Fold this protein.
Amino acid sequence: MIKQTLRQRFTNPGCIKPSIMLFLLSLLLSCGLSLNAQDKAPHYLFIGNSFTIGSGDKNTTSLNGVPGMVALLAEAGGHVKPDVMKCTQAGYSLQDHLNNTRKWEAFVDKRPWSAVVLQEYSTLPTSYDNGEKGDIETFVKSAKQMESIFESQDPDIKIYLFQTWAREKTHHIYHRNFQGGPEQMFKEVREGYQRVAKEIGATLIPAGDAWELSIKTRPELNLYLHDRYHASTLGSYLNALVIYAVVYDADPRGLPPLATVTADEATYLQNIAWQTVSKSAESK
């Protein structure tokens, strides 16, 4: 009897053992699902500075900053893991990004972005006047310009504003500014972001409000690094939880801890994030 060729065996399913056939079908199905998931992965661009990067904290930067944390939380929450990218530079304002034309335009054109998360220089939305940056009008102008650029590519793109936080209460910034202390700075940052969100029709991510609530509720849980204004691992984790809750319109409670965050800390910060986002949604 002449032996069947390999071509004959694969063109005649009856010649293939059932176990092999099941294996091949499952392999093809899994590959198809994997490709399909990749096709459907949303593309998120984060534009900001060291607050988005997680500068100074190796735990956060090793995970690709706050955007990387958001991607891990999204996957853990049962969503297709998003493709996240950072257009970031320490010390930059949104206007600084716009001024860096070559880098800025390269990021704009890298993907068909599903959403863009904007984070402004920390004192720009405030009354800070110590010779540095405190100019809400520049924030408004820059955010409007970015919104216009992205909406010209896709009118349905979602724009989010990542609201930042106040310095720690012993920071030197309070020697000459924000005489009401952190409470005043939290308030000014919040009101600045709220104004810009309203003017450009963006969705606010109230991370700063979550920080304020956490500090009032459990002050011993340190959200700051040693410099008393950048985020510790806990602070960045809280930021990622709030971003996740807003972008996915999902409850972050029950998500896993990341990096060195303990289960107890994660549960607490998840409750803070959800309480903050729920309150923000109710006030709209």
